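Data availability (excerpt). The following record was deposited with the supplementary files.
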Amino acid sequence: MVDLNHDIDELLNDIAPVQLQFPDTSQSFPLITLFGVDNSSNLILDGAERLSSIVLQLDAWDTSKNGNTRQRCNELAADVSARMIGRGWRRDQGREMRDPSGLHRYMMQFSGVVDNVTGAIYQKSRF
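Predicted structure:
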């Protein structure tokens, strides 16, 4: 099993702060939340896990205060998506969501097969 929280934070924190919990409305925005959806063994060699199948949910959040628009949240999501895809992740879904808090939210799910030794990210074939 591989823990990617620190790696994802380093990859995205110059776009916006990354945290592991849903925001409350008093926080500074914009921000990104990270939630691990799946972290399962993909390949075991000589009794040790070598590859892990990972699914991550990344949500881009922004507030409507100070005239910030839903468009700014969507632009943040596009920046996150480009950075993740550039690192080797595949975006499996992405959609704008209406959040009961009144915050702007764009939810994305990314997947990849991670080499636990080298950190390389591979994709399963979809053909």
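Summary of structural features: The CA atoms of residues 94 and 108 lie 4 Å apart.
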